[in-house]
Amino acid sequence: MSRATMTSKGQITLPVEVRRALGLDSGDGVTFEPAGDGAFLIRPDAGDIRKLKGIVAPPARPVSLADMEAAIRRRASGR
């Protein structure tokens, strides 16, 4: 069993064995889910960015750099 102590600012450091078991690295997030009877589950928010591939459909036609710049200019001018 691992143990951590909370600071006066409400911060804790997850023990190394917990970080390893959850596959957490610096900058990763965690979610705390109520599990009943005052207990919580800690789930990693970390994930492989490659899993996001394909969730946004490609444009119907390729967009040129000139098209992108024109869209930026239109948006910047308020039109």
Key traits:
single chain, 79 residues, alpha+beta, two-stranded antiparallel ribbon, 2 helices
Please provide a written account of the structure:
The mean pLDDT is 89. The protein is built from two helices and two strands, in the order αββα. β1 and β2 form a beta hairpin. By secondary structure, it is of the alpha+beta class. A two-stranded antiparallel sheet has the order 1-2.
Helix content: 25-40%
Tell me the distance between the termini: 61 Å
**Total number of beta strands:** 2
Average pLDDT over all residues: 89
What order do the SSEs take from the amino end to the carboxyl end, as H and E?
A: HEEH
The share of residues in extended strands comes to 15-25%
Largest sheet: number of strands, sense, barrel closure: 2 strands, antiparallel
Output the number of helix runs.
2
Approximate shape: elongated
Biggest sheet strand order reads 1-2
- The parts where pLDDT drops under 50 for at least 5 residues are none
Task: Output the radius of gyration.
Answer: 22 Å
- Structural class by SSE content: alpha+beta
Short description:
By secondary structure, this protein is an alpha+beta fold. 25% of the residues lie in helices and 16% in strands. A hairpin with a 2-residue loop joins strand 1 and strand 2 (39-44).
Task: Produce the secondary structure layout.
Elements: H1 16-22, E1 30-36, E2 39-44, H2 65-77
Antiparallel strand pairs: 1-2
